[in-house]
């Protein structure tokens, strides 16, 4: 529609893909569960950010996404809220392992994602846990044993726990690679590929990156299926 085009122009949103749905320009345009809308209101959010507005309807169609957008643009809820909705539709047993898996480059970033997931997921009774290195494994393993819907992890620690066979990724059907460019810069590509081998290929995969160099394009081509590309701002296409 005209207003969708105007919104995309105003916010420098460029999309590539078949029949890309129009952006959800306000919270009233979303069909989000009331628990989620209440959290957004409590956080004082007046409208979706551009990356949220454009990636929510695509993610809710179950499609793969590559999103190229800079830091601070609201990417976390861009993938978490559709992930929560995906999870609720699955009726999975958290004791069999997570349904949503988010990979993040550092302990600090993973913890921030975990905090956002807890805040927005608590009233929907979604359980989340965070796995990162530089901390004892014991408490993380105990959290996993209690059952989890969402796991946020750094690739190194998740790979260690996989090798110990203390987590199953057989139930993961919504996989997010956050800050993919940074994970590759940090040398996590082998761990990422090992982890993805444990995730069933029948899944939705979302990749978020601040830059779009050839290494990131390559891993996107290997791990995503017919993704819609969403580009915000002046990031090179
Ligand atoms: P990114 O991952 O793109 O760097 P974040 O997801 O960390 O960005 O979000 C940056 C900040 O914006 C966070 O404090 C987050 O709570 C806030 N935020 C997220 N969505 C909205 C929104 N719709 N309106 C206002 N602030 C938002
Ligand atoms: Mg982020």
UniProtKB/TrEMBL annotation:
UniProt similarity note: Belongs to the DEAD box helicase family.
What residues of the intact protein does this structure contain?
135 to 371 of 710
Q: Which residues form the DEAD-box RNA helicase Q domain?
A: 25-53
Q: Can you tell me which residues the record assigns to a coiled coil?
A: none
Please list the residue ranges annotated as the Helicase ATP-binding domain: 56-230
Which intervals of this chain are the motif Q motif? 25-53
What name has this protein been given in UniProt?
A: RNA helicase
Q: What superkingdom does the record give?
A: Eukaryota
């Amino acid at each position: 529609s005209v207003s969708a085009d105007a919104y995309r122009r105003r916010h420098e949103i460029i999309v590539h893909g078949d029949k890309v749905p129009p952006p959800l320009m306000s919270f009233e345009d979303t069909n989000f569960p009331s628990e989620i809308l209440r959290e957004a209101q409590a956080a004082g959010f007046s409208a979706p950010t551009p990356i949220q507005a454009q990636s929510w309807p695509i993610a809710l169609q179950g499609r793969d996404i590559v999103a190229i957008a800079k830091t601070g643009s609201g990417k976390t809820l861009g993938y978490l809220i559709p992930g929560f909705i995906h999870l609720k539709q699955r009726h999975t047993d958290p004791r069999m392992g997570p349904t949503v898996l988010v990979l993040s480059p550092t302990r600090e970033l993973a913890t921030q994602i975990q905090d956002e997931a807890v805040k927005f997921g608590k009233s929907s009774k979604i359980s989340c846990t965070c796995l990162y290195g530089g901390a004892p494994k014991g408490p993380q393993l105990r959290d996993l044993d209690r059952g989890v819907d969402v796991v946020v992890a750094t690739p190194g620690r998740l790979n260690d726990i996989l090798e110990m066979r203390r987590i199953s990724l057989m139930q993961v059907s919504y996989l997010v690679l956050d800050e993919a460019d940074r994970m590759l810069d940090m040398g996590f590509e082998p761990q990422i590929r090992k982890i993805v081998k444990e995730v069933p290929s029948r899944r939705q995969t979302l990749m978020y990156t601040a830059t779009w160099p050839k290494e990131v394009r390559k891993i996107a081509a290997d791990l995503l299926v017919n993704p819609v590309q969403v580009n915000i701002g002046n990031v090179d296409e």
